[in-house]
């Protein structure tokens, strides 16, 4: 996974959007129809004014003047309505495409490999799904606006040729200049929008990081430092934004307006020096009016194109990011593989398991461990020894490089992860809670009754949570469970696992950050949920795993000791040093 996003070409963008457009065929058809209608109506008005000035006013045929005048205003009203509905349908189609892309991006979150979240900041992921997905909508709407403008130019140009072929040929000389200018303009301005989008994404990520860590920032009095870092990013964004704005002001509308006036002046000079006759054809007032109006209607769409080019370049950069996110490699093993159809016992065997996060820099060096069903295994070791990595392999968050892990004698890779994880339970050091209620966080939106939820809480010692508020099991839980203590979050996690009733349980530093009183409650909860289950307990506090059936000691990716507390204390120096360092004060 790379953080560098090479902007897609328009053909790639169109290929990306087509599958979503196929689901909006009716809206797409209406957009094309309205696009053609607005172009034809816009090209029609110069012919009406020409008829009025050349045929009806000179002959004082005021009835025809009134009739054609009414026809002219009718066309204008139709044109206004057609443009309104074109913009409405075009925008609606873009919004529906954006919604479908956001939904697909949200589904993607659930099936990405765990490594992705280790390498990509949360704020940048949020920016891809929210603001960058809007880039696809903007790309679609601006592309159709540009197509509409090009169609206007083409149809109006045909009208000019019909009115005065020689002038059409003269104007044709200007078009290659405009096309070259647009090509260069798009190439130059694209660089600014790449920098703008990337810096904007960094700002979003920085905000997410600072808000999440606001208490730590205040505790260490780092407000000014954080503010300086944020201001530096904002200043960088403003610098890129100013460059883009200056370039647009210099090379955009004003330059286009200058070309427009030069062409109009050339047209008037041409008509003037022709003494009002060109190749024996009289240049009438109506013809002059029609030519000037047609020229205006042909040049104005270039202004639309230039204004949309800015948004187009910005949208391509954003759309590329969400496109790359959606195309990130999914964890195919979530669904691929056999189903676990029968009840498992819970025998786990690690056979020469090796694993590295990066290349050959192994964090586990050939682990061999045989665990019987119902055993409670404590796993200890210094930071970086491979404790969590070993459990991540068992949970299949990562795939081991060599060796094998067997569940009841069957390679775990043979099962799909959805089926496999139904038999696994985990309680983390920092439990994941979601905005909702006490019940929704325990049941995880599964169909359990209030009585089952209450019973699970009572078994793990968390029944007092039911009396904290008048709402009982419907007690509100705030974002990330911020209205609960860490111990209370842990109890909810234990109740969640108990309700699920898995055969294999993993407790990852479940008592690392709690006080002694809460630790006692958590120990009781651990005893309850681990009963009749194969249990792995990762612990820094060695007191929490003294009663385990066996304790496994890891050191730099190797197992350096297996046994009971007494056996390891007398026979494993790593374990003895860890235990003595924790209980030195107590011994004294």
Detail the topology: elements first, then pairings.
Elements: H1 10-21, H2 25-56, H3 62-109, H4 114-119, H5 122-163, H6 165-172, H7 174-212, H8 214-219, H9 223-251, H10 253-273, E1 277-278, E2 281-282, H11 285-326, E3 348-356, E4 362-371, E5 376-381, H12 387-394, E6 402-407, E7 410-411, H13 417-421, E8 424-427, E9 436-437, H14 438-443, H15 450-459, E10 476-477, H16 486-500, E11 504-508, H17 516-530, E12 534-538, E13 550-555, E14 558-563, H18 565-571, H19 573-582, H20 584-587
Parallel strand pairs: 5-12, 5-13, 8-11, 11-12
Antiparallel strand pairs: 1-2, 3-4, 3-6, 6-7, 9-10, 13-14
Helix pairs in contact: 2-3, 2-5, 2-11, 3-5, 5-6, 5-7, 5-11, 7-9, 7-11, 9-10, 10-11, 15-16, 16-17, 18-19
Summarize the structure.
The chain is α/β, with parallel strands linked by helices. The protein has helices spanning 10-21, 25-56, 62-109, 114-119, 122-163, 165-172, 174-212, 214-219, 223-251, 253-273, 285-326, 387-394, 417-421, 438-443, 450-459, 486-500, 516-530, 565-571, 573-582, 584-587, and strands at 277-278, 281-282, 348-356, 362-371, 376-381, 402-407, 410-411, 424-427, 436-437, 476-477, 504-508, 534-538, 550-555, 558-563. It has a 6-stranded mixed sheet with strand order 8-11-12-5-13-14, sandwiched between helices.
């Amino acid at each position: 996974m790379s953080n560098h996003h090479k902007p897609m070409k328009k053909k790639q963008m169109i290929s990306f959007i087509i599958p979503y457009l196929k689901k909006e065929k009716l809206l797409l058809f209406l957009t094309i129809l309205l696009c053609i209608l607005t172009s034809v109506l816009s090209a029609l008005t110069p012919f009406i004014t020409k008829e009025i000035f050349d045929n009806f006013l000179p002959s004082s045929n005021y009835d025809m003047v009134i009739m054609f005048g009414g026809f002219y205003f009718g066309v204008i009203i139709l044109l206004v309505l057609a443009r309104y509905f074109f913009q409405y349908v075009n925008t609606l189609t873009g919004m529906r495409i954006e919604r479908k892309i956001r939904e697909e991006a949200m589904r993607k979150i659930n099936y990405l490999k765990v490594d992705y979240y280790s390498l990509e900041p949360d704020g940048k992921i949020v920016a891809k799904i929210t603001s960058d997905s809007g880039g696809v909508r903007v790309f679609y709407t601006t592309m159709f606006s540009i197509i509409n403008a090009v169609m206007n130019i083409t149809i109006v140009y045909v009208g000019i040729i019909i009115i005065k072929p020689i002038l059409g040929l003269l104007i044709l000389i200007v078009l290659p200049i405009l096309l070259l200018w647009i090509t260069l303009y798009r190439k130059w301005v694209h660089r600014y929008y790449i920098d703008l989008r990337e810096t904007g994404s960094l700002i979003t990520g920085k905000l997410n990081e600072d808000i999440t860590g606001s208490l730590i920032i205040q505790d260490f009095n780092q407000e000014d430092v954080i503010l300086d870092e944020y201001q530096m990013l904002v200043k960088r964004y403003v610098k890129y934004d100013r460059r883009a704005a200056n370039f647009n002001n210099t090379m955009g509308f004003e330059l286009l307006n200058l070309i427009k006036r030069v062409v109009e002046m050339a047209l008037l000079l041409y008509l003037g020096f022709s003494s009002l006759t060109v190749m024996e054809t009289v240049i009438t007032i109506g013809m002059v009016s029609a030519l000037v109006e047609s020229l205006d209607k042909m040049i104005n769409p270039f202004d639309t194109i230039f204004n949309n080019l800015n948004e187009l370049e910005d949208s391509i950069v954003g759309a590329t990011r969400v496109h790359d996110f959606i195309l990130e490699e999914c964890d195919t093993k979530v669904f691929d593989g056999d189903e676990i159809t029968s009840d498992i016992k819970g025998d786990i065997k690690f056979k020469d398991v090796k694993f590295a996060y990066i290349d050959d820099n192994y964090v586990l060096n050939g682990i061999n461990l045989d665990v019987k069903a119902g055993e409670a295994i404590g796993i200890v070791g210094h930071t970086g020894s491979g404790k969590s990595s070993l459990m991540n392999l068992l949970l299949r968050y990562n795939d081991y490089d060599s060796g094998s892990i067997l569940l009841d004698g069957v390679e775990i890779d043979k099962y799909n992860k959805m089926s496999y994880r139904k038999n696994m339970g985990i309680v983390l050091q920092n439990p994941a809670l979601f905005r909702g209620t006490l019940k929704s966080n325990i049941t995880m939106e599964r169909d359990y009754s209030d009585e089952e939820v209450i019973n699970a809480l009572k078994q793990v010692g968390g029944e007092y949570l039911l009396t904290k508020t008048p709402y009982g099991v419907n007690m509100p839980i705030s974002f990330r469970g911020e209205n609960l203590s860490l111990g209370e979050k842990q109890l909810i996690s234990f109740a969640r696992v108990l309700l699920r009733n898995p055969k294999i349980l993993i407790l990852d530093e479940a008592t690392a950050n709690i006080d002694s009183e809460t630790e006692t409650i958590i120990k009781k909860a651990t005893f309850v949920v681990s009963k009749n289950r194969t249990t792995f307990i990762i612990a820094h506090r060695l007191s929490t795993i003294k009663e385990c059936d066996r304790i496994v000691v890891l050191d730099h990716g190797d197992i350096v000791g297996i046994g009971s507390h007494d056996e390891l204390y007398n026979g494993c120096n790593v374990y003895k040093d860890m235990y003595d360092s924790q209980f030195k004060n107590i011994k004294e």
